[in-house]
Amino acid sequence: MSRTFSIGGVHPHDSKISRECAIEPLPLPPTVYISVSQHIGAPAKPLVAVGDKVKVGQPIAEPGGFVSAYIHSSVSGTVKSIGPRPDLAGLPQMCIEIAVEGDEWMEGIDTTDTLVTDIPSDPKEIIEKIRLGGVVGLGGATFPTHVKLSPPPGKVCDMLIINGCECEPYLTSDFRTLLEKGEQVVVGTAILKAALGVDKATIAIEENKPEAISHIREVISKMLKVSSKYAGITVMTLKKRYPQGGEKQLIDAVMHRQVKSMALPIDSGAVVQNVATALAVYDAVQKGKPIIDNSVTVTGECFPRQANLLVRVGTPLQYIIDYLGGVPETASKIISGGPMMGKAISNLQASTLKGTSALLFLTEAQTKRRPAGNCIRCGRCADACPMGLEPFLLNRLALAGMTDELEKNAVQDCIECGCCLYSCPANIPLLDVIRQAKGQVLGIIRARAAAAKAAAGK
After folding, report:
1. Domain boundary residue, one of 313, 336, 368
2. Confidence of residue 458 (pLDDT cuts 50, 70, 90)
3. Same domain, yes or no: 302 and 409
4. Structural domain tally of the chain?
5. What is the DSSP track for 12-28?
6. pLDDT tens digits, residue range 113-160?
7. What is the CATH number of the domain that holds 158?
8. 138 and 252 in one domain?
9. Which three-class secondary structure state does DSSP give residue 98?
10. Which residues, in sequence order, are bridge partners of residue 203?
């Protein structure tokens, strides 16, 4: 029987109109612009200078702290500049510009399609290869994977959960990865399991992806005949429900455990990784290949050519769109990601990041907001909130500037999923207001913690 999480959630139409599109390699662009800030944590520090020649897979920036990640060249060519460049929102981000000159790879990277099924036995060796590969969470948060695989002392992982839900409407790159790279995903899962030292791992897939469910089960059965290190890996079918792929919601659905306010998933005995991250772990550990590309869904009812593309990191968005025929006249907005949690793009000269998952084209009718009315106290937003919050109350407190009350009512636990906005019959922009209030409260919490730490050090 399919499981799901216990609190809130909504059921938007999944609109997986690109699900039949196999992943297609995008031809190399003439120039890439690789950001040094494409992960949670400190920006990476450049290792190259203008005029340097680089190869595919060569480290071009090193971690700027413990919570940071290596950045690698996605192309071979010459470093043309290092400096600020506008990102998706038009804000300056430090980028390394590389003019493409062929496709020469670093020595030691296995570029063949041969499946490597032997699992390393040393967790430290695995985690170091993942760190050197610049692997980050590709489910949206881009948290450095080697950090996630190194729980603090006293924290014990009971289960590894691989997130194959892809619950956001329109997105299909994870689905295609499960179908086309299922063997590599399962090997990557076994590697992650070995790194954590856990006996159980579950690949969680929503029931609207039956082909992926059956295929991964077949792959696991085949791998069990290869090695006992694949024992304990199972597939769990989940009901179609948004935001099923949220870490806390997924832990609830799979393990029936709740992650407490301001706590981490490891506090509930779970580590969650995305399907694409499992593939990246396979590449880094078994092939010596760092993250230099990722699968990007390009979709929308108004977009004439649906696609799932394998895109080199740092590829300009305009280049991707032009390759598929350009921006259609009926498109009113382009979103990076899905319609629920994605961000509107204001600058098509920006480039892809490791975590870029989709380019979604929407019409004016799909994006036009209806006038906001008065709250009728129907409670639908509270019923829909997967974190058990009361969005109507948080909205009122935020508009009144009551930050103390916002913290008491756990605005900091909001995961910004948009369920409240989706369910509100009065069209109140709840998410916009609550997101801003959450940022203010988190700033206060961090400042308080810093002051307490400083006082304790005196």
Report:
1. 368
2. low
3. no
4. 2
5. -----TTTT--EEEPPP
6. 999 999 999 999 999 999 999 999 998 889 999 999 998 888 899 999
7. 3.40.50.11540
8. yes
9. strand
10. 162, 235
Residues 6+ apart with CB under 8 A from 22: 176, 180, 308
Nearest CA to 421 among 300, 339, 337, 331? 339
For the four alpha carbons of 145, 288, 189 and 218, in that order, the dihedral sign comes to positive
For 328, other C-beta atoms within 10 Å of its C-beta total 15
Helices (H), 309-390: 317-323, 364-367, 380-384
Residues 199 and 347 in one domain: yes
Domain boundary among 324, 346, 368: 368
The angle, 0 to 180 degrees and rounded to 10, between the axes of the packed helices 210-224 and 173-180 is 40
Residue 274 main-chain phi, psi, to 5 deg: -85, 160
Q: Specify whether 276 is located in the same domain as 250.
A: yes
Structure confidence at residue 262 (pLDDT): 82
pLDDT for residue 1 is more than 70: yes
Q: Residue 37 to residues 84, 97, 124: CA-CA distances in angstroms? A: 11, 14, 26
Residue 451: domain span: 380-457
Residue 85: its H or E element: strand 77-86
Across residues 157-181, what is the average pLDDT?
Answer: 97
Specify the residue for token string 């694409």. 276
* Residue 243: inside a domain: yes
Alpha-carbon gap, residue 77 to 42, rounded angstroms? 27
User: What tokens does 151 get?
Assistant: 């729980």
Give the type of residue at 145: T
One domain for residues 339 and 284: yes
- Is residue 311 located within the same domain as residue 167? yes
> Does residue 33 belong to any structural domain of this protein?
no
Residues 276-320: tens digit of each pLDDT:
999 999 999 999 999 999 999 999 999 999 999 999 999 999 999
